[in-house]
Amino acid sequence: MGAWFTREIADTGRLRLFCFFVAFIAAFLFIRFSVRMIRKRVRWWPGNVTPGGRHIHHVVFGLVFMCVGGIGGLAVTDDSSGWAAASAALFGAGMALVLDEFALVFHLKDVYWTEQGRLSVEVVFVTVALCGLLLLGLRPLGADAFASSKDAGGGWGLAVVLLIDLGLAVVALLKGKTWTGLIGLFIGLVALVGAIRLARPGSPWARRRYKPGSRKERRAVARERRYRRPVQRLATAVGDLIAGRPSIRG
C-alpha cells in the first residue's frame, strides 16, 4: 500500500490533491453528522456555536479554513512537504464546510433543511466526482496532452479537438445534463453522447428549441419520466441517507 501511494500519488505530484480530497470528504461527513445530531437534539453532542446568542454557521469556519489553507499553500514551495499536505487538507476541509451551506449562500437565507437545501448536497457530490477524476490523472480537456503537443510544435490540431470537446460539453450542460457535461470535460465521448441526445424538459436548450407540443418536447418528457426520474429518486435516497432528509416545507 505504501509503495502504491508513493508511486501513484507522491511521485506523480498529486499529494496535495489527495490530502484535499480526503479532508474534503471527511469534513463533509463530519459536519453532516454534527448537524443531524443537533437536529435530533442529542444531549451528548455539543450543539451549535452561539456566542452571545448569535448562531455562527459553519460556512464562516469554512471561509477561515480556506483562507488559512489557501495562503499557506501559496507560501509553501515544496509540493511534497508535510506543510503542503497540511495546507491542502485544511483548504479541503474549509471548502467542504462552505459548500455544505452553498444553498444558504446562494439563496441568502437559511434553507439548510428544506428542499432548496438539496442544492448543497448536489454541489458537494459534483465536487467529489470531479476531484476524483483529477486524482485518477484525468485533466479537463486534455490539458496535459495539449501542453506536450504545444511544446512539440503540433498543438493546432489538438487545440481544435479540445475546442470541439468543450463545445459538446457546453451543449450537454445547456441541455440540462449537468453530470454528463462536467464529466464530458474530462472524457470527450461522454460529452458527445450528452450533446446528441434529447435535452431535458425545462432546460435552456429545450425552452429555446423545442416548441410546446412538438414531437421533440413530447419525447423529452417521456424520456424524463421513464429514465431520469427513477435515477433521480435513487440519487435523492442516497443523498438523504448521507446528508439527512429535508423538511417537508421549504
UniProtKB/TrEMBL annotation:
| Transmembrane portions of the chain | 15-35, 56-77, 83-107, 119-136, 156-174, 181-199
Q: What is the lineage of its organism?
A: Bacteria, Bacillati, Actinomycetota, Actinomycetes, Streptosporangiales
Query: Which keywords accompany this UniProt record?
Result: Membrane, Transmembrane, Transmembrane helix
Q: What is this protein called?
A: Integral membrane protein
Give the species: Actinomadura montaniterrae
- The yes or no answer to whether the keyword Transmembrane is present is yes
